[in-house]
Amino acid sequence: MSKEHKGFAALNDADLNKSTAFTKEEREKLGLRGLVPYTESTQELQVRRVLENIKRKGYDIERYILLSSLQRRNERLFYRTIIDNIDEMMPLIYTPTVGQACKEFSHIFREPKGFYITPDDKGEIYDILDNWPEHHIEAIVVTDGQRILGLGDLGANGMGIPIGKLALYAACGGIHPDHCLPVMLDVGTNNKELREDILYLGYPYKRIPEKEYFELVDEFVEAIQKRYPHALIQFEDFLTPNAYALLNKYKDKVLCFNDDIQGTAAVALAGVYASTRITKLDFKDLRIMFLGAGSAATGIADLMTSAFQEEGLNEQEARERLWFVDLHGLVVKGREHLMPHNLPYAHQHENLNFIEAIKSIRPHVLIGATGAPKTFTKGVIEQMSLINERPVIFALSNPTSRAECTAEEAYTWSNGKAVFASGSPFSDFEYKGKTLRTGQGNNAYIFPGIGLGVIRSKARIITDELFLTAAQMLANLVDEDDINAGALYPPLKEIREVSLMIGVAVAEKAYELGLAQAERPDDLKKYLADSFYDPTY
């Protein structure tokens, strides 16, 4: 896109626009005299104005719309606001607000963002990618909208997820927003209510048959390899069987990963590593139970298997420390209708309900990845507290409305003993005079750093070793102040530094494993830091 725009064209270019921050010289050069008010604002003052306008809004969805419009109008001001106020802004541009934004996407739609591929584009995906204005793409987030957070099939409304994730790539991982491409594989929706909504913007038919679906995804991946050969593809919010099928098909062939499976795994593993500094238990001795047996939970278990093996356990011993409970009770051998990814964790044991399973297995760590709210009941937390001096409770489901329990419930029902982490943000909680800070097991701690490391090193593929490295680095970045406050993750305000350190560790591991194709710089940390997108003007 040319940056020689003048007049209103300059004001309508999100990359170029500085609005009232244009200097007198710039106003003269760009033909802006008379088009903007007299006063030259600083970017800091503009951020202050944005924050004041955000506070005036009565609902988070209104704040989301305001920020979305700002991103389209003045991209650098949008990112300056996000970066400088990440604690307040992340819940607005991503979870939990993005869940509501996706549900209402077709109703709050203002202007096109991202790239849409439908069955009508079959055979022409490579050609239509040329319509995208930027030709140097480094990070792609793609969804088919079938399993958006814990909200189910939202079809094309799921575009809010790639848009939000890539905003975090830029804000947290320093990837230039021009080099990011949000993609919606709009292959229909089985959500009848959406199809009958006159304002729905997506392909208004039932989801296409499996064979056609995988053919379309194949064509998309091949087109990306030709058009943007070094781009990272992040699969996001696919239904569990499709998520595993696509990951297993492409992970050894192209630079890609599934954030729900692998990103969630790394951030959860990091939290469990950090929890041992509070519980004083050795990681290799932990027994871990999952409520939910979908892609997120089994992804965590798969990475934990690798982590246990690194501690000296063999594969069987590692898997025997990991137990699952789903709608039908404890996942055990001989149960019918288990998915392939569940079979390695189906142990020889009688089938028990959730509470009885906790009593029998006696887990040290309980991880919820169900999408089903309030499933960590008072009885569950009390039972975990009976068998553990410091029970570790992870309620990872998003958005906040789908959390297995709240921070207040976990702390109160455990009499302050719980070591708690959540997928969505919760405020600090004061219990008997002590302020407890809930660590948010947000994938934003992991995927921007992973992306930074593999993009800058030009890694061919992403292996489990890279996610294990990322988890170990994240855990190491939790300091004593965090631990003393009961938090298993660093403060969000440190997330750019966290992403940088993870990026360096991941790139180092990529070079060590022979995965990197870029020439190794003399100072890897400086090279990555210098590459960070800076929205200051």
Describe the model.
45% of the residues lie in helices and 10% in strands. The protein is globular. It has 3 domains: 1-41, no CATH class; 92-254, Rossmann fold (3-Layer(aba) Sandwich), CATH 3.40.50.10380; 262-444, NAD(P)-binding Rossmann-like Domain (Rossmann fold, 3-Layer(aba) Sandwich), CATH 3.40.50.720. By secondary structure, the protein is of the alpha/beta class. It is built from 24 helices and 14 strands. The strands form 3 sheets. The chain has a 7-stranded mixed beta sheet, sandwiched between helices. Helix 4 (60-73) crosses helix 7 and helix 5 (75-84) crosses helix 6 (86-93).
SSE blueprint and pairings:
Blueprint: H1 8-11, H2 24-29, H3 43-56, H4 60-73, H5 75-84, H6 86-93, H7 97-103, H8 105-108, E1 115-117, H9 125-128, E2 139-143, H10 160-173, E3 180-185, H11 192-195, H12 210-227, E4 232-235, H13 240-250, E5 256-258, H14 259-279, E6 288-291, H15 295-310, H16 315-319, E7 322-326, E8 329-330, H17 354-361, E9 365-368, H18 378-387, E10 392-395, H19 407-413, E11 419-422, E12 429-431, E13 434-436, E14 439-440, H20 447-457, H21 464-476, H22 480-484, H23 495-512, H24 524-530
Parallel strand pairs: 1-3, 2-3, 2-4, 4-5, 6-7, 6-9, 9-10, 10-11, 11-14
Antiparallel strand pairs: 7-8, 12-13
